[in-house]
């Protein structure tokens, strides 16, 4: 069913792997369509607990496939953005479960910003992030101009976007761009540990946490306090809260159902 990605879901754990390694997993329209179809499946599954976004080959994603006819110079680049990139970024950020990116090698252009749209980015130490748009006369898209200043501050965002300078994973972690840089040979173990943790986590609570954090930078304190209150009211009636409190008082590990 899928050519440009691999996609599987088992026990609420979804794994979406970009699979155009000979093109450094750059986006063509087919890959966009296949990713969108995979996200349809995740969104429709009330038992979904975690999504892992990974990639095959030596790099994570080189952004837009510059050989694709949709981005021929002189054409309407905005059409591809509207049809594919913007919905993809919005859908990833709105998924009511943790979305993890596993980054090896280069993440460039929309590939970098795809990773940064995920909730937690784990990168091998040989990975790097490049706002490659500057090199071809474009503006950082896929949320780059929104996400970067929020993650690393205006000065660094400006420098990275204007120069397209490569940021190694260790520096990316140090500046707050990503969650964790790991030795390359420890990357899989760390990613799988996170996947296992989220597969057994109180998913609804994590979904509301993610949603609250994602709107916080554009909300007032009063709005954010009200949002926390309304989420807490909802979560206070959830099965996982009851289980969490019961497990605490019975001095045992909780068994969360995600709701
Ligand atoms: O409307 C719209 O859709 C606009 C949307 C824009 C979103 C964007 O993402 S714009 C930014 C597009 N991406 C780039 O500008 C990055 C271009 N690639 C590079 O700068 C370099 O390839 C990398 C820094 C990513 C990696 O360098 P390196 O030396 O590790 O690999 P390489 O040799 O350059 O690339 C390996 C192969 O992948 C090569 O193919 P070949 O020669 O072996 O047949 C290369 O052409 C191909 N490749 C790499 N990036 C792309 C690509 N092919 C098509 N599109 C690419 N973006």
Radius of gyration: 19 Å
CATH hierarchy: architecture of the largest domain? Alpha-Beta Complex
> What is the residue-mean pLDDT, rounded to a whole number?
97
Counting DSSP E segments of at least 2 residues, the number of strands comes to 9
Task: Determine and state the CATH class of the largest domain.
Answer: Alpha Beta
C-alpha termini separation: 31 Å
CATH level 4 superfamily of the largest domain: 2-enoyl-CoA Hydratase, Chain A, domain 1
Domain count: 2
Mind summarizing the main beta sheet?
Answer: 6 strands, mixed
Structural class: alpha/beta
Main sheet: which strands, in order across?
Answer: 1-2-3-4-6-9
Summarize the structure in words:
- This protein has 259 residues and is of the alpha/beta class.
- The protein folds into 2 domains: 5-199, Alpha-Beta Complex (2-enoyl-CoA Hydratase, Chain A, domain 1), CATH 3.90.226.10; 203-250.
- The protein has 10 helices and 9 strands.
- It has helices spanning 29-44, 77-94, 110-116, 144-152, 154-163, 169-174, 187-199, 203-216, 221-235, 239-249, and strands at residues 5-10, 13-18, 50-55, 99-103, 106-108, 120-124, 128-130, 167-168, 180-182.
- Strands 1-2-3-4-6-9 form a 6-stranded mixed β-sheet, sandwiched between helices.
- β2 (13-18), α1 (29-44) and β3 (50-55) form a beta-alpha-beta unit.
- The model has no long low-confidence stretch (mean pLDDT 97).
- Ligand T3D is lined by residues 23-24, 26, 62-67, 71, 77, 80-81, 106, 108-110, 130, 132-133, 135-136, 138, 141.
């Amino acid at each position: 069913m899928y050519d440009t990605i691999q996609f599987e879901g088992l026990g609420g754990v979804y794994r979406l792997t970009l699979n155009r390694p000979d093109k450094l997993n750059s986006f063509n329209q087919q890959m966009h369509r296949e990713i969108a179809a995979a996200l349809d499946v995740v969104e429709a599954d009330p038992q979904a607990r975690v999504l892992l976004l990974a990639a095959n080959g030596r790099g994570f994603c080189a952004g837009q496939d510059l050989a694709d006819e949709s981005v021929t110079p002189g054409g309407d680049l905005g059409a591809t953005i509207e049809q594919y990139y913007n919905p993809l970024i919005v859908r990833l950020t709105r998924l009511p479960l943790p979305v993890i990116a596993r980054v090896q090698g280069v993440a460039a252009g929309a590939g970098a910003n795809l990773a940064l749209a995920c909730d937690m980015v784990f990168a091998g130490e040989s990975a790097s992030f490049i706002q490659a748009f500057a090199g071809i006369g474009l503006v950082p898209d896929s949320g780059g101009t929104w996400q970067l200043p929020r993650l690393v501050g205006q000065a660094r965002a400006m420098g990275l976007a204007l120069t397209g300078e490569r940021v190694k994973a260790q520096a990316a972690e140090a500046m707050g761009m990503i969650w964790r840089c790991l030795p390359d040979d420890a990357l899989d173990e760390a990613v799988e540990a996170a996947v296992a943790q989220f597969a057994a986590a109180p998913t609804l609570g994590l979904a509301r946490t993610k949603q609250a954090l994602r709107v916080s930078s554009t909300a007032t304190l009063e709005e954010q306090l009200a949002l926390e209150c309304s989420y807490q009211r909802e979560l206070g009636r959830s099965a996982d809260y009851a289980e969490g409190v019961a497990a605490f008082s019975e001095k045992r590990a909780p068994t969360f159902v995600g709701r």
